[in-house]
Amino acid sequence: MRIDKFLKVSRIIKRRTVAKEVAGAGRITVNGHAAKAGTEVNPGDEVSIRFGKKTLRVKIESVNSAAQKNEAALMYTTIEEVYHDD
């Protein structure tokens, strides 16, 4: 599944267009490598997303293209959430 779609379906980012913009700005990495919106992700991958003063790192548990709202949080495990002062 594409990273932009995963972020939308898992509800980490609410809209796919926003996920594409974040990826385009170079604020997403997959397994330590810069990711574009079309980068494919699989279970076991580690994703890091920079949101302004916060960086969220998650491990992908499953990729379900039609996850319901109550299933979305089960698609990933939060590894760390770091807040920056800069």
From TrEMBL:
Keyword Metal-binding in annotation: no
Keywords: Protein biosynthesis, RNA-binding, rRNA-binding, Stress response, tRNA-binding
PROSITE patterns from the UniProt entry: S4
Annotated RNA-binding S4 domain residues: 1-64
InterPro entries: RqcP (IPR025490), S4_RNA-bd (IPR002942), S4_RNA-bd_sf (IPR036986)
Listed Gene3D superfamilies: RNA-binding S4 domain
Superkingdom of this protein's organism: Bacteria
Pfam families assigned to the protein according to its UniProt record, in alphabetical order: S4
Role, per record: Key component of the ribosome quality control system (RQC), a ribosome-associated complex that mediates the extraction of incompletely synthesized nascent chains from stalled ribosomes and their subsequent degradation. RqcH recruits Ala-charged tRNA, and with RqcP directs the elongation of stalled nascent chains on 50S ribosomal subunits, leading to non-templated C-terminal alanine extensions (Ala tail). The Ala tail promotes nascent chain degradation. RqcP is associated with the translocation-like movement of the peptidyl-tRNA from the A-site into the P-site.
Subunit structure: Associates with stalled 50S ribosomal subunits. Binds to RqcH, 23S rRNA and the P-site tRNA. Does not require RqcH for association with 50S subunits.
Homology family: Belongs to the RqcP family.
Name of the featured protein: RQC P-site tRNA stabilizing factor
